[in-house]
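The following block was generated as part of the benchmark described in Methods. Ligand: magnesium ion.
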Amino acid sequence: MDSKVVGILGGGQLGRMLVEAANRLNVKTVILESGKLAPAKQINAVSEHVDGSFTDPAAIRELAKRCDILTVEIEHVDTDTLKAVRKETGIQIHPSPETLEIIKDKYAQKQHLMKYNIPVAECLSVESTAAALAKVGEKFDYPYMLKSKTEAYDGRGNYVVEDKSCIMKALEVLHDRPLYAERWAPFTKELAVMVVRSVKGEIFSYPTVETIQQNNICHIVYAPARISDTKRAEAQIMAGNAIASFSGAGIFGVEMFLLPDGQLLVNEIAPRPHNSGHYTIDACVTSQFEAHIRAITGLPMPKNFTCLSTPNTHAIMLNVLGADKPNGELIMCRRALSIPNASVYLYGKTTRPGRKMGHINIVSESMVDCERRLAYIRGETEESPS
Ligand code: ATP
Ligand code: MG
Ligand code: MG
């Protein structure tokens, strides 16, 4: 479809699903990741991948040599090297290294969003001292959220400061990380919207979904979100506006909080495919992965290509997390395979408790039916859905 070769920094499950989407369009991909068995490399044996880290300048340069376009499946990459490589070779990089640089520092990201009048929880940069944290408590009251500015994912980098007595423990947990504090957001629901931007700058928002996190890890996604149409539309517009403030093409995940008074706040942005968008593979006209490949290679992106497949489409995405007993999570996958309307995706990773091993998409004409199927898959009922 497109003769340009796409290099992906990172070879985890997001890269794996990008490779799948690219394969269908016959777009060639090359992966930069340590180890020969990374999830994205397993399903793409035709390319000579790069064995190395997406934070290693030499490895990034080696990847750039083999590709026409670079993209990422993770934001924690060496953006200085990406900028230098772009200057030296003219290679296209999506989203832009400038966007990645802002987003990978969660405090810089918040400041950027505030500059563009996107509502976010009030936040402050803070020194790693007990006195500084106590001062934040006086300003924000308790609880408040202490976050690492960088290298954060799955809540690793967050600490809830319940009251003054937790300050020493918070410093112990987040020691030697650059910190900022956020005012507590007493949300009633967490929402998310995938947004894709074309090379021409057009913005397309996917439907607003509801995400349920367990231990800070995305666990279940309801698509569309179980809120009013007006609020769903408001969230889509806010997400689109947030992404319009950044440069570069591609897919972005926008996480949001819905507050008790109906106000929406942006929690954070991911400059790549996102766990809350996995439902799009089975429930939307185009998956988030294909949308990304189309966006960065300049392929057509027609109106409505991010919509649910039909006006009645409802979906639930369940993450398959590693069980306490090795491979115990596969029981759930077998149950999903035994019923209609459920699709299983496994990432080819070694099982470990709590690790994201795969996901299951359930698609049906009503949320009640999706929930019935979910209950069966989770072993909450033995009544097998037809
Ligand atoms: P991800 O894997 O999504 O990148 P992360 O490590 O970057 O996660 P955040 O998204 O900042 O972490 O926070 C994880 C979760 O913690 C949120 O989904 C939400 O449930 C909760 N949370 C974050 N910030 C706040 C806040 N200011 N007030 C209340 N809860 C919050
Ligand atoms: Mg994050
Ligand atoms: Mg998050």
